[in-house]
Amino acid sequence: MTRGADCVVVGGGPAGLTTAYELGKYGKSSVVFEGGDDVGGLSKTCEYRGYRFDIGGHRFFTKVDYVQELWIEILGDEFLSRPRLSRIYYRGKMFDYPLKPMNALLGLGIFESVRIGLSYLRASFFPSKEERNFEQWVSNRFGKRLFEIFFKTYTEKVWGIPCDQISAEWAAQRIKNLDLRAAVINAFLGARKRGGKEVITTLIERFQYPRFGPGQMWRACADKLRAAGNQVELGSMVTRLRHDGQRVIAATVKRKDGAEEEVAAPHFVSTMPVRDLLRALDPPPPPEVIAANDRLRYRDFLTVAVIVDAEELFPDNWIYIHAPDVKVGRIQNYKNWSPDMVPDASKTALGLEYFVQEGDELWAMSDEDLVALATAECERLDLVPKGSVEGGSVIREKKAYPVYDDVYKEALEEIRAWLGTLENLQLVGRNGQHRYNNQDHSMMSGVFAARNIAGEQHDVWAVNVEQDYHEEKREGEASGATGERLVPGRVTERELEDVLASTFARYDQLALGVAVGVVVGIMLFLATVVLLLRGGPGVGYHLSILGHYLPGYSVSWAGAVIGFFEAAVVGFLHGWLISKLINVIVGREERRLRTRLAAASASPDSIARGDSE
Ligand SMILES: Cc1cc2nc3c(=O)[nH]c(=O)nc-3n(C[C@H](O)[C@H](O)[C@H](O)COP(=O)(O)OP(=O)(O)OC[C@H]3O[C@@H](n4cnc5c(N)ncnc54)[C@H](O)[C@@H]3O)c2cc1C
Questions:
Q1: Ligand 1 midpoint to CA 271 (Å)
Q2: pTM, 2 dp
């Protein structure tokens, strides 16, 4: 039967609800079927004894102005602006995230820092030629040692597979702009202008967050949809999509009590995981498409929410746990997301996040054992006082992460090509597109799907193709007035100019000089101090030879200070000269390329080629 709606939407998460909300703006109605007991999907908020928890912490940040407008329209004053602090726990110490060189240097000690520096230099001069996997991608940019310390353990906890089996594409999407060179310069001098343009990307220091967690946004959205006459039905699992090879005819919905209903509509939008969707199609797709579908993998997730009898534990919103001796991957402190997440200000609510595989040892553990494990681990990390955990609850979430392994891309392309034959079915959202989407991208794909139904033409798969989007937003960069900027278009002259400017960006000579100078100065100072503290006969004999080159330097307290300044000057000169030399070489290369581009653009053949790419 038909419910009289223009569209059946499968899933009441951000993508599904936004699809229905946007359809409403075009005078079209929807029926949204949500399999769970609440709306919000992965962005829902759960409750235990009045304490609220996210499935992971959900920051609201976006470059897409239209998404921002929707958030405000839906939630108004309940949408807070919150400060962000997140750090890395490693070897019993806290490190800033993103990494700040001085903080890392002090935390890791001089010898480890030198090791990191050397491995960074090695990667800069002799990078791995292949860049297919996460390990190669990160090591080429940060050096192998930094990869081992700050990326390997955590990433393998998250994905459950070795870093050399994770696609480089994922790294490029998530951490592209965390450039170590820029970070060093930034740490010493702050962002500087080059050519009138801010060039160092800054990480988002604030984010928005609903007063009662992300679920508040999606409940408010569902309320608005219902108030406008749409249907949002919970506990309604779509189990079958009947089609005739060209169009989807109807969706079969199964209720909690086992009752089934078949609902027909002119349009269907699915946010359910691609793998489930293909299995729900009736008749089923050809065997080769099913085989491709079976190659899609997911990573599951569980949060152990614990209530701690302590007013304040740590100031972070969340902490990444890089310690290999505990299983927890990340710890959220929800009170720091919004004070209203806890009903009693004298207590703290933590969420210990475990990245798991459905059915594995952790997944199969009883809730009681998981709470005991979480309690023991946060006590071992010294993040909560012994005996202060008052109780907890477990939230298991299947298919939290679509896995980007080395087979997913081809498999997805094959599936998409076949699904393209069903003209009234659109796939949107995170698992709906098997894409590592945040809420805004999930929403934007829903917005496009709705506009397509209203007669416009958008490519829902073109959302979130901007790989460097996720964390950073460049200062001075225009944010899109609409989501359209997420759709790749033809490269304009200005964009080409931007690409050239960033590819051939010059080193800031002063910045690099000062950065190298300070590091070298500190290294000599610390080396001298260490030797002095060690003491003993003949101590510092080798280092004191430097006195031949640095007048007045010796292994003494006065020498440490003199050495600091003199080494800083020498370091400055080296940094300045090296960057000058690089700038000359880069300048020459840029001029050569510009000459070739100018010649190429005069040829009509090459213009045609450029358009089609
Ligand atoms: C740990 C973690 C942290 C995250 N942090 C952030 C963050 O800080 N900021 C951010 O913006 N995003 C974050 N995200 C991403 C965000 O959660 C997703 O982008 C967003 O929820 C995706 O929305 P969606 O509607 O596409 O899918 P989902 O949220 O997965 O919603 C899909 C819905 O469809 C329902 N469904 C599935 N199958 C069926 C079916 N057959 N019939 C009926 N209903 C069905 C599900 O029950 C679910 O409610 C995070 C995700 C995770 C896992």
A1: 9
A2: 0.74
